[in-house]
Amino acid sequence: MELIIPIDRQSERPLRDQVFAGLRSAILGGTLRPGERLPSTRALAHDLGLSRFTVADAYSLLESEGYVAGQVGAGTFVAATLPVAPEQALESTAMPRSDPPPRSWSAWSERVTVVGPTTDPPGEASIDFRHAMPDLSLFPHAVWRRLLAQATRQLSLDTAYYGPSAGFPALREAIAGYLSRSRSLPCVSEQIIITSGSQEAVDLMARLWIDPGDRVIVESPGYPRARRTFALAGAEIVPVPVDAHGLQVEQLSRLNEPAKLVYITPSHHYPTGGVLPLNRRMALLAWARRQPALILEDDYDSEFRYGHRPMPSLAGLDAAHHGQSSVIYTGTFSKVLYPSTRIGYLVVPEDMIERVTAARFATNRTAPFIEQAALAEFITGHHFERHLGRVRRLYAERQTALIRAVTEELGDIAHLDPAATTAGLHLLVSFDTPLPVHDIVTRARRAGVHLDDATACYLTPPPRPTFMLGYACLAEDAMREGLRRVKRVLERA
User: Fold this and answer.
1) pTM metric for this prediction
2) pLDDT tens-digit profile of 26-74?
3) 3-class secondary-structure state, position 449
4) Where do the domains of the chain lie, and which CATH numbers do they carry?
């Protein structure tokens, strides 16, 4: 009998496995019947042009799986009782077709589908007005690579294992010093809890502080990911309106029921860009103490303040005027370094350190050590603030260029608030057009322009299509070309 076993010498599959598969197929297909003798390893190796060792190895594998049995001095024979083929096993155990039972999803998973869909990163566009992206070409990559390599060389058993749940001690110390200098926030390293980005920081506090039914005050419009996080925790969302200067704190006294937490972006309101003035900050702190309520201060891009010194943080003001703080402060390095760094942090009052650290251990244990160690050196070696000073000046120039380009290229079609141009990496711009937001985004994409729709920030859609135009990565000529393309899209309404 001549066995046909296809052998592909260009395949990545080992020759032994190809021989095994060919013989197994012949046995299961009935070409080789139970009790029938297989060719000798020498003969089959000659026929296939392979080494005898390769064929002998395939025979050994067949024998180990029960397809053949060797008899000393007589040869190798197909087993009298064959193992069940996978396909046959599936057929023999198949149940009658019926409707599957419903899956037992948790209540949390049901809220996921209600509070909003996930969004994938945008595809490539020749002109990208993405709103939260720093200019990566300005980052000192050579310095960062050197610090990463240095941190890798210094790995020890302790640091290579997991490291402290609250974060790398040297990084916590560096952040405490930086916040004291830049944000008027006196704190010690023990109060710093390192997280994998600011979103995890918000989620951690929602888990620790919110029970289903608790009331959480959010800005309206406001940061949608935070609002969704609180909704997933089962909170009752209480929107409070904002104006050109941020949260309308005076509206809080009109609420009928107490709230347990207030989430706020006071240094650069998301998405409008307003900066909460000092009198409102003091009023908010006083209101929170009367409740009492916890304030979660998200200082997501306070580093980018143009023309004026940053306003003192709520956490810093609270620490200066009171004993036990009612403010949790959270920040991130995503906008100064780059988004995939995924290092954020919480600053918590001393009486909350133990509980928050325990929650960090229980949920995500710790952030990557090597990146933490490199960032600690990046800060203490003055690379961080040197880089920040350089990009802050450039981003201020690009913001001015975008304001000028919007005014000159779009004219009365576009509207932006001049009061919201003192900070951040984007401008909130709305358009006078009958086109719906989705059509504008789609048509702009076809024209090679990416626009970030701001609709998700609003509980009630704004009266005009509204977008967050990022400017950090664009030169003025690219901004103008992008806006001219957008104008053509709007004029074809």
Assistant:
1) 0.77
2) 888 888 888 899 888 888 888 888 999 899 999 999 888 889 888 877 8
3) strand
4) 15-87 (1.10.10.10), 156-384 (3.40.640.10)
